[in-house]
Structures are given as structure tokens and as C-alpha cells.
Amino acid sequence: MTYNMRRARLDDIEDVSRLFDQYRMFYQQTSDVEGAARYIRERLERNESVIWIAEKEAFKGMEQGEMADDTHHNEWGHGNTDSSIQTPLAGFVQLYPSFSSVSMSPIYVLNDLFVHTEYRQQGIARKLLQAAQNWARETGAIRITLSTAISNKQAQALYESEGYAKDTHFLYYELNL
What we know:
Number of strands: 5
Order of helices and strands: EHHEEEHEH
Structural class: alpha+beta
Helix content: 25-40%
């Protein structure tokens, strides 16, 4: 199957929210699709984030709610008999805009990268990263920053293969409020 990388729009909120909820559950959060939809809607409406999605080619150009020609089970474990549970998305990456005071230039924080388990090992995460990198360059950003779990060697290998480097100059701290 082929995938189209494109920027998410407001009419993608339902599908992005389902995937975002799966992402949060991966990090041991309780499922909350309605909360995910509110969060994603707010970010997009306020231009507080940029989301790139991997859309399955079979769905490209379809109106929301239309059925694809395939009859296999979708990634949520349901047959294609109910279009309300169908999703055309295999993954997403979410970027938050920020700035570098020293460089006086825009940057992006890559906060979320997720590919549904049924679509992993197909190069989708790499394509999403590349879409994010191209977007950042086109908008004049000077860098993308991200963090990942120390134990997540697979993600680290992907990031490093795309040119990301571990920061050896600064320590990062956080304060939970």
C-alpha cells in the first residue's frame, strides 16, 4: 500500500484524534477520544501545532465518511461495514512552533510521532519525519528539536539516520507543575 503525506486539516480531526488517542494509550494514558478531538481541534484552530499525516492512498481524495474499495479489517479491528470507525490514516507527526532567542529564528519542536502498529516497518515514520523536515525548511525554521526515551533505540536509530544528533552541549531540565 502507498501513503500520501499531507498536512492535516480541520476536517481530519476525527481520524487524527483516533490515532492521537492510540498514541496517548501507548504512553499508558486512559483512552479519551473526545478529549483528544478537543485537544487537536484547539491546536489546529489556534495554529499552535502543525500535524502531518500519512494517509492511505486508497482514501486519497475521498470525502469523509465514504468507504474505500478494500474489504479487509481496518486498523481498529473492525470490518468495513461502518464508515464512522473507518480511518484513512496510518500515522502522524505533530510539530509545535517555537523560537531560538539566540539565533532570533523560528524552530519546531517535534513532540509526537506515531505510526499505528499494523503499519509499522513500512517506512511511514521516516516519510513523516521527512515531511516535517521539508515543512520546517520551507517556513524558514533553523532546526527541529525532539526528545525520545533513552530506552527507545529504534526511534533513536531512525532519528540519527535522518541527520538528528544527540545534543552534547546542553543539559535539559523540566519542572512538573
